[in-house]
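not sure who needs this but someone in the group chat was asking about Acetylornithine aminotransferase from Marinobacterium nitratireducens so here u go. i didnt clean anything up, its just raw.
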Amino acid sequence: MTQHSVSRATFDEVIVPNYNPPATLPVRGEGSRLWDQDGREHIDFAGGIAVNVLGHRHPRLVEALKDQADKLWHLSNAFTNEPVLELAQKLTARTFADQVFFCNSGAEANEAAFKLARKYAHDHHGAGKHEIIAFNQAFHGRTLFTVSVGGQAKYREGFEPVPAGISHVPYNDIEALRSVISDRTCAVVMEPVQGEGGVVPADPEFARAVRELCDEHQALLIFDEVQTGVGRTGSLYAYEQLGVTPDILTTAKALGGGFPIGAMLTRREIASSLNVGSHGTTYGGNPLGCAVAKAVLDIVDDVELLEGVKRKQALFVKLLEDISARHHCFREIRSAGLLIGAELTEHWHGQAAKFLAAARERGLMLLVAGPNVLRMTPSLIIPDEDIREGMALLEEAIASVLEVEHCA
């Protein structure tokens, strides 16, 4: 066997142990395929957790990065630059927003959104209007503020005390929200589809009612579109399909197609509260990231491509339903474009990782959304033949897990 200079064992020696990656160590990707150190080929249904929106090494993204690398890499925000201004023009032209704050990740975008919501409320209503309401099972990032707003206690444990003035209610339950929102509420934060929480789409009537309650109490509505944005659900942003316009929107993951970048979008009158010196980032608006993101938007914001997302969604769902009909393994299949969750039957609750490992052994990369749900966030342009081949591998993996159970 080939000897490699680094391996999974190297990880344990030199990397902080907050991750636990498998032995597979990918070294090359193309389209929806990956190859590891030993030359094994894998079909990628994970997409870097909804990041590799155009697959691996898309030629136009490679070209954009190389072209910008020959011009200018970094300035900091002591200066502005052409790519960041051009990218901001594209985002504001295509969305409800007037102005954009750029950063490096979804967590940073959400951090900026939550700070802006409190600053805007302070400027317009006084210090008493500072409370933020979010939803159970939500995920908004890993900074101390964003894990506090996120609705999963496991991500906050051991990091207390966390920021105060944050409460959580059940998702898709408007009466629960109605019971806690008040004139002290500065913002309500929601994902149009809860990703980490199990791939749970917002009911459109619920989303509209949230908007109405925010208006009634002069609270801002923040949409976390870090996972749903940039074509993932079949429109450029998911709020378009819900028919509900937020006051602030956060976006990252797919925005850079694999290059780290995040952004917070909002209206001019709200943005004005982040006056000079009130917030900042050294790398945000980096010319390299913005050049790549411009190319991503040029490709993804296309009617034919977005219609293709919906068609591929239907193919994924049909094949998952066929697998479940044969193996009785899924309780429910939920999807919004190519954000797909297959919830295991109750017998298999808590054991999603077993199916993930079995799939990986057969050359298929999947995700989970909690311990009960298999999650798929592939490239938006994944070929149909890769979908079918990957699903055949998934069925083999499922059959193997069920066989072990049967034989035990």
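also The two ends are 33 Å apart (CA to CA). if thats useful
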